[in-house]
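Human: Respectfully, please carefully check these tokens:
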Amino acid sequence: MTAEPARRAGEAPEEREVKLRVGDDFAMPGLEDLGGASVADEGERLLVAVYWDTDALDLARAGVGVRHRNGTWTYKGRSRRDGHAVVREEREVEGCDGERLPDELRAVVAESADLALLHPVATVQTRRRTLRISRGNESIELVTDHVTVRDGERSAATFSEVEVEYDRGSENLAGAVVARLIDGGAVVDGTAKYVRALRALGHHPPDVWQQ
């Protein structure tokens, strides 16, 4: 993976992750033997995400997304690829209810959609198990997600995926973990949960999210 210069002052933080598609029977391979890596199991939790967009899916068509999940609003900017990783701007505002887009995100979201037209368009429930893997100065977060796309009271779709999230400087450890996951049957697939949810609900979002 190619190293990048440090962000300039005032630039938004970036999310850097490798997403991998797995089957429901996927078994997490052993990871402790990766050159002295330590693995800490941070347990499991339930995440409920409500994605907002317009009827015309203006945000999805712009390759960006907005969600409210467990008390936190998140804006994800357009993505780019760095090897297997998807890299994108990510802004979060914590401690907010899900009824109104917070002021801190309104300007950036308004670049892609009319704020007056935004409303909830998809609900995704995720049962997530998190492992924290460390080796020397490197650290990554490895999560296994079992995802349900809701359509009212019914389940529209279910799928499972694994994500390896890391900061610059931890590329070597992340690469070793991704290689181990691929050997175990996982397949690199950068498709966002939001896009999977839209497809499950009968929409046809563009492929800009997979660039």
Observations:
- The mean pLDDT is 91.
- DSSP finds four helices and nine strands in the chain.
